[in-house]
Design a protein that fits this description.
- There is one protein chain.
- The protein contains 9 helices and no strands.
- 69% of the residues lie in helices and 0% in strands.
- By secondary structure, the chain is mainly α.
Length: 206
């Protein structure tokens, strides 16, 4: 007699779990951003573009990050739903606030660029993973990557890795090549976390 195994049911996260996850994920990403910024490095996505503009203009990273993400909420609302959009908007706003206040609470002085790139990338990747698993992102490329995974089954980590590396390499126009090289290693570390841990069907909760 053959026993039929019933696949596990997907259990939705509660609002409290979502809130704790957003706070946790954003906190991890903010520390990763501190490592990247302290070494004058870059990363991918809207975070990377915000760093490029921050280095070029001296404007607040948090403000630039918030403004750059505004156009992506239309895609999020149309394709990912109201709940995802609201959680993402809240996460982006919180990260913008934290990065603006972070210097008052912690300062990372003169880290080796390789250490800053790898540690920052890993911390950001884990933070993104926490947010993704609660149907939330930090806007921009994250929204597009999650949409492509849900619509076409493309791994969010691989999509984001390709886009992030392209953004970092494009920074060669304004950033010295060695810093770009360290930044690419950080972007790879970030996206390897996502590629290995955020595959369609691996995580059942919603």
């Amino acid at each position: 007699m053959t026993e039929t195994l019933t696949p596990p049911r997907s259990l939705a996260h509660s609002r409290t779990e979502d809130l704790v996850a957003i706070l946790t994920g954003v906190a991890l990403v903010s520390v990763g951003v501190a490592f990247i910024g302290s070494a004058g490095l870059l990363t991918g996505g809207m975070t990377g573009l915000a760093f490029v503009l921050h280095y070029a203009t001296g404007w607040s990273f948090g403000l630039l990050f918030f403004l750059l993400n505004l156009p992506f909420y239309w895609l999020a609302l149309r394709r990912m739903g109201l709940a995802f959009t609201l959680k993402t908007f809240g996460a982006v706003a919180l990260l913008s606030l934290l990065t603006g206040l972070q210097a008052q609470f912690v300062q990372i002085s003169h880290p080796h660029p390789l250490y800053a790139a790898i540690t920052g990338g890993l911390l950001m990747g884990i933070g993104f993973l926490v947010l993704f698993r609660h149907r939330c992102s930090l806007g921009g490329v994250g929204i597009l990557a999650l949409y492509l995974q849900e619509r076409y089954g493309w791994r969010a980590g691989k999509v984001q890795m390709a886009i992030d590396c392209a953004i970092v390499l494009a920074a060669l126009a304004t950033v010295e090549p060695l810093r770009v090289l360290w930044s690419v290693l950080g972007a790879v570390a970030l996206n390897l976390v996502l590629a290995m841990n955020h595959r369609p069907g691996r995580y059942m909760a919603a």
